[in-house]
Amino acid sequence: MKVLSVASEIYPLIKTGGLADVAGALPLAMGHHGVEMRSLIPGYPAVMKKVGKTKKVATIPSLFGVKANVLFVVHEGLELYVLDAPAFFQREGGPYTDALGKDHTDNWKRFAALSLTAAEIAAGLIPAWKPDLVHAHDWQAGLVPVYMRYGRAPETPSVITVHNIAFQGQFSPAIFPELALPPEAYSVDGIEYYGDVGYLKGGLQMAHAITTVSPTYAREIHQGEFGMGLEGLIRARASHASGIVNGIDTAVWNPLTDPMLASSFSAKQLTKRAANREAVMRHFGLDGDGPIFCVISRLTWQKGMDLLAEAAGDIVAQGGMLAILGSGDRALEGGLVQAASWHKGRIGVHIGYDEPLSHVMQAGSDAILIPSRFEPCGLTQLYALRYGCVPVVARTGGLADTVIDANEAALSAGVATGFQFSTITADGLRQALARVFEVWRDPDTWRQLQKNGMKSDVSWDKSAAAYAALYARLVSKGN
Ligand SMILES: Nc1ncnc2c1ncn2[C@@H]1O[C@H](COP(=O)(O)OP(=O)(O)O[C@H]2O[C@H](CO)[C@@H](O)[C@H](O)[C@H]2O)[C@@H](O)[C@H]1O
C-alpha cells in the first residue's frame, strides 16, 4: 500500500517539536507493515541544504500564483517529496516564524499550498506514484482532506492526526476567497469555524478517519477543557476517531549506540551512566551529589513550566539538582533563569534548542520532570524510559498511558516505571517530588524503576501495526 504523509516538519531535516519526531519515525516503522510511506514536506532552506541532489518529478506552474516544483529524494531512509516553492519557503527564521520569531503573515497561504499539492499528488500529479491513502498531520496539513474532498481525489481515503489540538490554524474569513475552494466549503460542514476559517477544523470534518497520539488524549478532547472549541466536532465524529500512542525511533534513541553520549550504557551497566551525569553537571554548572532532575521542553503554560518554577526551590531544599533545557515564553524563561541565579550550583538553565544536549541529559539525569497541564502524547518520557531516566509526570494524555506509577501495588508487582501526579498544581508536583526523593533514598528500588523503564516497549511496533490496520480498513472500504 502506498501512503503519502504530509507534515510541516520532519526529523532529521527540520524540527521544532514532537511532530517532527513522529513524522520522521513513522514512515520507517510503516515499512515493516507493508506500507510504502512517502512524505511531502516544504522546501525550507534547511531542508534544501541537507537533502542535496534531488530529482524533479512535477511542476506546478501556478500554486497560489507562484511557480513550484515537487522534488524527490531519499534521505536517511526517508522517501521525500519536497515542495520547492521559494516564494513560500525560502525564508530566514523557523518553519513558521521570521528571524525575530514572529509568525509569517502568509502562513495560511504557505500551508494551503502544501495541502493543495498533497491533494494534487493524491489525484495523480506524479503518475509513477499515486497514493492509496493520504495521512495529514496537524493544522498545517489540515486542508489536505478538504482539498481532496472538494477536488479531484474525493474517493481517496484520508487520515488526519492531531498532535496538539491547541494549535488550530484559525484565520480571518477574508482569506476564504483565495483558497481556491468552492463556496459551499465555507459552511459549518466545511472549514467555517466560529465565523473564521479553521484549517484543523476542516481536516477533522473532512478526513475519513481522525487519530490522535494517545488513547487518553483521544477521550480527553471530547471535553471542552481539552477540546479547545473542537470538542463538539470530535464528539460528532467519535465513531471515526481513535488514539494511537506514539513510539520513538529506537535506532536514534539507543543508549548502547547513541554517538551523542559521553558514555554508552545498557540496563545491565547502569553505572556507565556516570560519565553522562558528569557531562550534565559540567554543562549546567552543578556541584551537588543528590539526584539530577532534568527538563527538556518548550517553556510554556501547556508544559506546566510555571509550576516547575514554583517547585524548583523544593528540589534544592531536598538535596536535588535541576537542569533545564528549553525555550519559549519569555516570562517563564526569565523566572527559571532567576531561580538558577538564586540556586547557583543546584539549578542550571540553558535557554535554547540543542538536540545533542537533550540526549546527554536523558542519559545522565536521574529523573525527568513533565508537569504538563495537557499532553497529547509526550515523547520525552519515552526517551527517558529508554535511557534509565525516571519520568515524573502529570497524569494526563499520553503521559498517563505510558508511565506506570510507583505506587505500592506497582512497586511490589515489580512493574513501576515512574511517578504520576493527578493534581496538576505546584503542590501536586511538590507531593510527587517528596515521593521521588523517598524512593531515591532506596537505591535498589530506584535501580529497579530504571530497569523496568528500560524494558518498556517504547518502539513503534504496536502503533505502526495499529496505523497499518486503520489504513487497510479505510482502503478496503473504498474510503
Ligand atoms: N530545547 C530543546 N532542545 C532539544 N530538544 C528539545 C527541546 N525542547 C523540546 N525538545 C524535543 O522536542 C520534542 C518535543 O516532544 P513533545 O512530545 O514534548 O512534543 P510537542 O509538545 O512539541 O508536540 C506535540 O506532538 C507530539 C508528537 O505527537 C506529542 O508527543 C506532544 O504531546 C504534543 O504536544 C522531543 O523530542 C524533545 O526532546
TrEMBL record:
Query: A single GO molecular function, which one?
Result: alpha-1,4-glucan glucosyltransferase (ADP-glucose donor) activity
Q: Identify the species of origin.
A: Rhizobium aquaticum
Q: Which reaction does it catalyse?
A: [(1->4)-alpha-D-glucosyl](n) + ADP-alpha-D-glucose = [(1->4)-alpha-D-glucosyl](n+1) + ADP + H(+)
Q: Which residues form the Glycosyl transferase family domain?
A: 277-438
What gene name does this entry carry? glgA
- Record family assignment: Belongs to the glycosyltransferase 1 family. Bacterial/plant glycogen synthase subfamily.
The EC number(s) attached to this protein equal 2.4.1.21
Q: What class of enzyme is it?
A: transferase
Name of protein: Glycogen synthase
Report the protein's function: Synthesizes alpha-1,4-glucan chains using ADP-glucose.
Supply the CDD domains for this chain.
GT5_Glycogen_synthase_DULL1-like
Q: Where is the Starch synthase catalytic domain?
A: 2-235
Recorded hits in HAMAP family, A to Z, give: Glycogen_synth
- PANTHER family linked: ALPHA AMYLASE DOMAIN-CONTAINING PROTEIN, GRANULE-BOUND STARCH SYNTHASE 1, CHLOROPLASTIC/AMYLOPLASTIC
